[in-house]
Amino acid sequence: MSQAAVQLPLPGFEQALGQWRSDYERQMAGEKAVRNRSGIEIQPLYTPRDRAGERYLDDLGFPGQYPYTRGIYPSMHRGRTWTQRQLIGLGTPQDYNTRVRRIIDAGATAISLLPCCSGFRGIDCDEVDPVLLGTCGTVVNTTDHMDAALDGVPLGTISTAMNDPSPFTLLAFTLGVARRRGIDWRSVTGTSNQSDYISHFIANHQFYRLSLPGSRRVLLDHIEFCRRAVPNWNPLSVVGQHMQQAGATPAETMGFTLSTAIQYAQDCIERGMDVDDVLRRFTFFFDISISFFEEIAKFRAGRRIWARIARERFGAKDPACWRFKFHGQTSGVDLTQQQPLNNIARVSVQAMAGILSGLQSMHTDAYDEAIACPSEETARIAVATQNILRDEAQLCAVIDPLGGSYYVERLTDEMEAEIEAVIARIDAAGGMYKAAEAGLVQTMIGDSALAFQEQLETGARKVVGVNCYQVEEEDATIPPAERPDTQAMAQHVERFKAFKRERSQEPVARALNALARAAGSARENVFEKVVEAAEAGVTHGEMVSCLRRELGFGHPLIVA
Amino acid sequence: MTWSPSPLAERLRAGDRRAIARAITLMEEGGANAAALHTAILPATGRALTVGFTGPPGAGKSTLVDAFVAELRKTGRTVGVVAVDPSSPLSGGAVLGDRIRMGRHTCDAGVFIRSIASRGHLGGLTESIHHVVDVLDAAGCDAVVIETVGAGQSEVEIVDVADVRIVVNAPGLGDDVQAIKAGILEIASILVVNKADLPLAPRTVRQLKAMLSLRREGGADVPVLETIASEGRGVAELLAAVDARSTVPPEDALARRRARIRRLVAEGAAAEMRRRILSCKDAAFLETLAQAERSEIGIDVAVRAILEGSAAVAEDAGGSVVVLEARDRQAR
Amino acid sequence: MTGTGVRPFRVLVTKIGLDGHDRGSRIVAAYLRDAGMEVIYTPPWQTIDGVVKLATEEDVDVIGISSLATDHLIVPKMMDALREAGLGHVAVVVGGIVPEAERPALAAAGVGRVFGPGAARDEIVDCVAALGRKSRAARVDDYSEANP
């Protein structure tokens, strides 16, 4: 058993502590308890007493050593800085291409594509009221569209994250483009960022694709296909973001997300996949709120718990499986429409928390995120924020710099306890799939969201510009909402319609039949057929409708 | 100026959606105009097949109703759905979310869905809901589906007036005990075990079949069907069972209406009797109660004393409740 | 607080267009319920035709649209559709993110009120109740009802 950081009893310690406490209480008589978002009470001071009994090697370890509390790699950001992976999505594929080329020229090594909401809805651009197209994402419905979006982008060397749920048509289009360019699929790297269907059903964003059981089927096919044919792609990203944005507390979010990962691991193992093979490619995606220390503790606890789950619960042997890899996005929910420039300060704090948490890649929001899709200018500031924190504030010089802080270590332990309690609750409910079906998770999140809102209403929780320090809004500080060029979009839709008319219909029909057949047969791989269909010229909407017919339309699992 | 129900009755019978909705609102409110409208549309009722769904929360009722409606639509029938949810006892408000699970019917002109909050009624709700069902019937719906949550007494009453009464269970909910308590098994025409793919399903089916054999009458005729509502499995079979069990053949609208009228009168009489008995302050009646209190007579004797004419509870012209013909108060 | 006479206000809370974030609309639904109203709550991604049918069948007094992205841009189309269906008396409020420059178009289309993200519970509830009263008073039925 390792030694405690400080040898207690220390002569004079208790007396001095007692003195401080009575001085403090005299000044702060009648003070109310302070709690963080997860409900944990925060003391005014933490001392060596809070770390007594700590076992350095067992509970913390060194970076790159189990249980990885201090970091999953030995050198962390000092060796290799986090990946800047800014989300881009607006307008037509050409609009996306223009923006993405610029950031690649500026040194980005990873890109992310956010499709238009119509895509999330599972329909093509010709089925949508034109005024809504491309306002929050890029319209990509075919392989040709993806080709245009990634024109001049070195697919074989740059990592691409595709933000779309089942049946992952964006990856299918990307693979089609790779084939056209003679790029081996083994060189295609990136992540299926929205593959966590359970979180979609819970946080009610994208249930409108396939039914719950249908989504389960397609995800497993997707994982299997990628292991075989696109081995350097991460087919699964377990997402905590949606739930935290919907109102789950940080501890709940980590608990739910790890429970979801457990569920997916079990599903894969049941399918006959090798546990090490599967866990090695698990990545996570989280929101980073402005509750600075809480987020850091949340991620440190998450690393520790995941390592134990992978090694002890699942018996994985490869250390790569024990490492909790995550992408963090600064939380848009903390940003305000009022006095939007304040959001730059907020994003800086969130980003700092992310960096000090040891994340692997990060997206920082632009300050106008709460209002519309970011402009070039606001997107530039978001990236500059990361650069300033890295290069000017030298936040990468020390690995886990908050490690050893009496507060942060204590808070990490307390967050761990809360998170474990959530995992236990989900286990008792039969796992995350069943808990989502039964509406248990949705209810917990709804309660937390309501409680948070209540705090805002009463002023117990302050938000600058919203319930305190309000000012009369001056229009000058609010940037005009950026909308895609309606004419360019209209032309894009026209060209799409022409494409559908003029393409060879027979291969399309054959591919759709094959897709439908695969969905009906437990032995075939649905995603493999999606990839083939994409190459045959089938559109996103056509593939989704076909699968909806075969595997069931997504029904909401909302609890009203 | 007395209000004439005719314009509204005419429009709703013609299938005007807005008129149907306004008529339902009126029926929810109750009162003299609602009664007048009900009388006006009564001749047009009796055609619809009415199906009630009830059962404990978590059984997947709404999902099953959604699939059931889809099945009805396949046969070309138009459907009205009345989804009943409890109001908050604290605020009197409600979030009516049953429609959420019926999203695919949102744009189907052959389906009319209305969400109803219980509004804290006890017993009185049943009557207004049956009037709502009559509105949909008179508007031309081939089938009207009533959905309520829970397995309590009021839910049993609501569903009891339907031609076919379906009680939905799911494995592992512990509902077998509940079902007995609420008397739900007594009124069920069909029992459904939903989520039939769960491991405990066969056991639940066995338990329900065993309990049916304890039923006073007709237990043997009650099938226990299995469904997986989220996948639409077993629902066609459920509809076939429902069609087979509707009280009278579809063509015999008159006979069906007669059956429903009888049930409605019984319902209304029971509700009215309850109201009167609970507010009765007549000395003779109170004496009968006191006898029951002192255990000199049993409750069943007290009930008979009131119902069978040895003492009858009625309202006199002045609105106070009296006991008539209190002949044999010493009935034993 | 619930309405004229005994009948609680019936409010449809929904989202049209393409955005799926519904945390705010769920909270507003809870507020209205706690204030004694009956809320018909739907998932996001309703079509305009769907909303018209829903509002008709449920005989609602007020419709609350939650719009965080650009879905408010099709609200004027929805207002037209409501009027065409004889539901011109139904009040409509929009809550969420609506750029200042785009608010006049909503007002011109007949939207009763636009709430930003900082709107307080009482403000929302009072407004919906007031609009509900107006909506009931404005009912135009061709049924010659003596008491609407």
Q: Give the CATH architecture of chain C.
A: 3-Layer(aba) Sandwich
- Beta-strand level of the residues of chain A, as a percent range? 5-15%
Percent helix of chain C, as a range, is 25-40%
- How big a fraction of the residues of chain C is strand? 15-25%
Number of helices of chain A: 23
CATH class of one domain in chain A: Alpha Beta
Question: What can you tell me about this protein's structure?
Answer:
The complex is a heterotrimer of chains A (560), B (332) and C (148). Chain A has helices spanning 13-27, 56-60, 76-79, 93-105, 117-121, 143-149, 169-180, 197-202, 212-229, 241-246, 250-271, 275-279, 292-313, 319-322, 342-357, 376-392, 406-428, 432-437, 440-458, 486-502, 505-520, 526-535, 540-551, and strands at residues 83-84, 87-88, 110-113, 159-162, 190-192, 233-234, 236-239, 282-288, 326-330, 361-363. Chain A is an alpha/beta fold. Chain A has a domain at 49-79 and 239-461: Alpha-Beta Barrel (TIM Barrel). Chain A is globular and about 85 Å long. Chain B is of the alpha/beta class and 332 residues long. Chain B has a 7-stranded parallel beta sheet, sandwiched between helices. In chain B, helix 1 (6-13) crosses helix 2 and helix 4 packs across helix 10 (235-245). Chain C has one domain (10-134): 3-Layer(aba) Sandwich (Rossmann fold), CATH 3.40.50.280. Residues 1-5 and 144-148 of chain C have low confidence and may be disordered. In chain C, helix 2 packs across helix 3 (75-84) and helix 3 packs parallel to helix 4 (103-109). Chains B and C meet through helix 1, helix 2, strand 3 and strand 4 of B and helix 1, strand 2 and helix 2 of C. Strand 3 of chain B pairs parallel with strand 2 (38-41) of chain C, so a sheet runs across the interface.
